[in-house]
């Protein structure tokens, strides 16, 4: 998976796609290759009154979308971008924007094996 929970992503396909708009990833479903993104693919469920919801009415809920429809958001470009992976000086792995090179978050602890020798 190229995105993780709490990442900011841009939705690039589907009804809610909007260029340059960042949304938070609420949940990642690796088995289905899907993600749940805040405010995206929201469906309304009509519910009858019950104990938890005595009024009944409409409940809104985000449904999963395909992970291939989102790109990690680059703060520098202000756009969703393709990401690459690289190792930092101390051997940690990080993601970066393939367009501008900005770091987009560390995704592993430093590993001496990949540290730059000085
Ligand atoms: Zn960028």
Strand order of the largest sheet: 6-3-2-1-7-8
What's the total count of β strands?
Answer: 11
The molecules bound to the chains, other than polymers, are: zinc ion
Largest sheet: 6 strands, antiparallel
Secondary-structure element series: EEEEEEEEEEE
Number of helices: 0
Instruction: Please state the CA-atom Rg, rounded to the nearest Å.
Output: 18 Å
Ends distance: 33 Å
Helix proportion range? under 10%
Unreliably modeled segments: none
Mean pLDDT, all residues: 93
Strand content: 35-45%
Q: How would you sum up the global shape?
A: elongated
Main structural class: mainly beta
Task: Give a description of the structure.
Helix content is 0%, strand content 43%. It is built from no helices and 11 strands. The chain has strands at residues 8-11, 23-29, 34-37, 42-47, 57-62, 65-66, 70-74, 79-81, 83-87, 93-97, 103-106. A 6-stranded antiparallel β-sheet has the order 6-3-2-1-7-8, with no helix packed on it. A 3-stranded antiparallel β-sheet has the order 9-10-11, with no helix packed on it. It has a two-stranded antiparallel ribbon with strand order 4-5. The radius of gyration is 18 Å and the shape is elongated. The two termini are 33 Å apart. Zinc ion binds at residues 74, 76-77, 81, 97, 99-100, 102.
């Amino acid at each position: 998976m190229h995105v993780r929970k709490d990442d900011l992503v841009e939705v690039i396909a589907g009804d809610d796609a909007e260029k340059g708009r960042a949304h938070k990833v609420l949940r990642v479903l690796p088995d289905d290759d899907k993600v749940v993104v805040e405010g995206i693919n929201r469906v309304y469920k009509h519910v009858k009154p019950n104990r938890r919801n005595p009024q009944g009415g409409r409940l809104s809920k985000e449904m999963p979308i395909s992970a291939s429809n989102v790109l990690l958001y680059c703060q520098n470009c202000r756009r969703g971008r393709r990401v690459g992976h690289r190792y930092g000086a101390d051997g940690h792995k990080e993601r970066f924007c393939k367009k501008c090179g900005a770091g987009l978050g560390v995704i592993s602890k430093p590993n001496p094996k990949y540290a730059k020798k000085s």
